[in-house]
Amino acid sequence: MKPRELKPDIYSIGAVDWDRRLFDELIPLPDGTSYNSYLVKGSEKTALIDTVDPTMGDVLIKNLNQLDIKDIDYIIVNHAEQDHSGYLPQIIDAYPDAKVVTNPKCKALLRDLLAIPENKFITVDDGGILSLGDKTLEFIYAPWVHWPETMLTYLREDRILFPCDLFGSHLATSDLYVTDEATVYESAKRYYAEIMMPFRTTLQKNLEKIKDLEIDLIAPSHGPIYANPKFILEAYRHWVLDLPDNTVVVPYVSMHGSTKEMVDYFVGALTERGITVKQFKLSNTDIGKLAMTLVDAATVVMGVPTTLAGAHPLAFYAAYLVKVLRPKLKFVSIIGSYSWGGKAVEQLAEIISSLDVEILDPVYCKGFPRTKDFESLDKLADTIYKKHQEMSL
């Protein structure tokens, strides 16, 4: 994508990656992504805000050449992860007089990850400013969105917030700005679930930190720019701060049909009680979709058969995912069947033991479920209904 002007002397010069389908060799990218980089030309100095993934460096260089940028004074690094900083060494080579401006933690990471020389850095404090002449950059520490060194950059005169990963979305689009809010909401929610949700508690503090900023544009490092900042700020406040919904997520595995029979019955029982259910067959689930449903869910009930003497491996994966994403869940339970024995319930309970959730009595039976097992599933559905009502969900 060619350079595009946001405001006078402020340009988007990053790259759209239409074809990427996996991030960190783990996270699905069904709609591609982008690596956004911004150029700010002041009356005296010029600053580049973040670079791009090394695979797309040629796009960044081409855009700088197209704008006829002969000198860059400052390269602002908000976050050291390589999809934003990976092309930094080549930019330093192309603009040898440029100084890398970041905070001390990010500097240490850049030294470790990219071997950037010590004499290339200018470190800034939380709340520190950098004048470009008629434009002023303000730096706001925002640790753990998504690494410990992350900071945001605020352009005072133009009221633009450059938050790097925060508020981003993995979405390849030719649109510079958000035009389809429904599509961007889904991508941003998936991004929040996969990247930001584990740091929800810290996010509360960082949202509080920027609540009084006057913001015309939010220009993240992934996805389109928000010309209506209220849209994404309110979405984040809902995901981070509000109570969960009256929703139960049911990820399950069934090897020979017994656990599936229980899941089907249980989902029907919950639905009859007015509870929204999101059901996922783990052997063919988009993990990003599962993560998204965890953002608002009050309860997770895993459907788990035994394999050999323990839980099915996909159930381990699902339990671990819940543990590391740390959603605002309140209740967890397990249903399923075993054949000659096993420790599935104990194993999965141990994995999620660090979460601040109430573990409801599991329903685990031998072989195909009988009448008493279906009665136990009704009882579990009643318990969840009552627990949700007590929370006014």
Notes on the structure:
With 393 residues, the chain is of the alpha/beta class. The chain is 34% helix and 24% strand. Helix 11 links the parallel strand 22 and strand 23. The protein is elongated and about 80 Å long. The model has no long low-confidence stretch (mean pLDDT 96).
The 3D shape can be described as elongated
- Whole-number radius of gyration? 24 Å
User: Largest sheet, described in full?
Assistant: 7 strands, mixed
H/I helix tally: 12
Low-confidence spans: none
N- and C-termini, Cα separation: 45 Å
Major β-sheet strand ordering = 1-2-7-8-9-10-11
| Helix proportion | 25-40%
How many E-type strands?
Answer: 24
Which structural class do the helices and strands define?
Answer: alpha/beta
Q: Which percent range describes the beta-strand content?
A: 15-25%
> What value does the average pLDDT take?
96
Task: Please describe the structure with a list of short key phrases separated by commas or semicolons.
393 residues, 7-stranded mixed sheet, single chain, elongated
